Structure prediction request, 232 residues.
Amino acid sequence: GAVVSQHPSRVICKSGTSVKIECRSLDFQATTMFWYRQFPKQSLMLMATSNEGSKATYEQGVEKDKFLINHASLTLSTLTVTSAHPEDSSFYICSALSPPKGGRSGNTIYFGEGSWLTVV
Amino acid sequence: AQSVAQPEDQVNVAEGNPLTVKCTYSVSGNPYLFWYVQYPNRGLQFLLKYITGDNLVKGSYGFEAEFNKSQTSFHLKKPSALVSDSALYFCAVHTGGFKTIFGAGTRLFVKA
Prediction:
């Protein structure tokens, strides 16, 4: 089953409103989560790195005031698209960094199912 | 800088025939290579990964990939394609900081 959950899976919002997308790690604590965006017929691009208890690190060209990221707990990171516009319509997906477990060495990245945002 | 290249935008194959989706990479140090699949209107699903060990990696749904260090390639393969394999496939590399760098994606069409 899924170990990283995203909600909502699909959302339609009106232009000018804000929408929040949640990313939860279900059976592990994730000090680090990542947010990606995929425009139609394009690849996935990293937007930002979300660190629990500290400010997110944004990739070049991503507006931090428009895409607010909050990682207030070890199992939840949220992405809020503020004052959304039609050009923000995209597929947003998160990943979470799982610590080593079960005798396995090294960390593992798990992706959520993604969230489709349509701004009308 | 680390990068991943998928030279084919689209691959067409007949059902029952073998399929190959190509991927080459450029990384410093040991590569952590992945394949993901995205079905229409669905999220991203993990297929397989290469971290170390055997160069031939077996994954979900009968897919496998071969790590070739000399050619810096990590091609995805399946001996017999199914129509249901039609999807968008991404090759990816994980950086030391656990960021994921994706290739541009290759759309696979399997015709019945």
Remarks:
- Residues 55 and 70 of chain A are 8 Å apart (CA to CA).
